[in-house]
Amino acid sequence: MKSNEIKVLEEAFSIVLGNTCRLSRTTACYAWNVVGPGARSLASCLEQQSTELHDALNPLARYVRGMGMPVILDYSDVTMTIDPPRDHQMPIIDDMIHSLVRGHREACVSLRAAMDLSSQVEEHTTTTILADRMVAHREHIRQLSVDFPPKR
Fold first, then answer.
1. Which end of the chain has the smaller Cβ count within 10 Å, N or C?
2. What does the pLDDT look like over 129-145, one tens digit per residue?
3. Domain-located, residue 152
4. Within a domain: residue 58?
């Protein structure tokens, strides 16, 4: 690969890893703090999703390092949630779900862009790895949207 192609893939992976990191933290935070009707089943679902997202980070990072690229994350990717709570109050369940679905959709957009870039430089293994992540995000969207429809 040419150096400019590597740079483009580095940036794409940085965005993908940042989205995954934020979603993992936000999902865990919501799982720990969800209250109200259906809270137990939603908390269980969110714990599973948070674990899956967290477990996806190391293989992605190892793959990036294996390609000879640095793993670059902005500090805000690690410390910020998608929608930081205001006044230390957690959003209501519907808002949590809406926020997470939006985060997973944003992750799919960044994955699609990274997949397009990896296809252009004929990096087919990368495309496959990113496609697998997109499938996982779409499943999270489906699970949140179908199993926990809005109550309002």
1. C
2. 999 999 999 999 999 99
3. no
4. yes
Other CB atoms within 10 Å distance of the CB of residue 142: 12
| Structural domain harbouring 109 | 3-147
- What pLDDT score does 35 carry? 86
Tally of structural domains, the chain: 1
Task: For residue 77, give the DSSP letter.
Answer: H
Helix axes 124-147, 3-33, angle to 10 degrees: 20
From the list 82, 137, 145, the residue with the least C-alpha distance to 112 is: 137
Among the listed residues 78, 60, 77, the one whose alpha carbon sits nearest the alpha carbon of residue 69 = 60
Which DSSP string corresponds to 93-119? HHHHHHHHHHHHHHHHHHHHHHHHHHH
Record the pTM: 0.86
Which two tokens mark 2? 């040419």
**Identity at 49, one-letter amino acid code:** Q
Provide the CATH number for the domain around residue 93: 1.20.1260.10
What mean pLDDT comes out for the span 37-65?
92
Q: Which sign, positive or negative, has the C-alpha torsion 41, 102, 110, 29?
A: negative
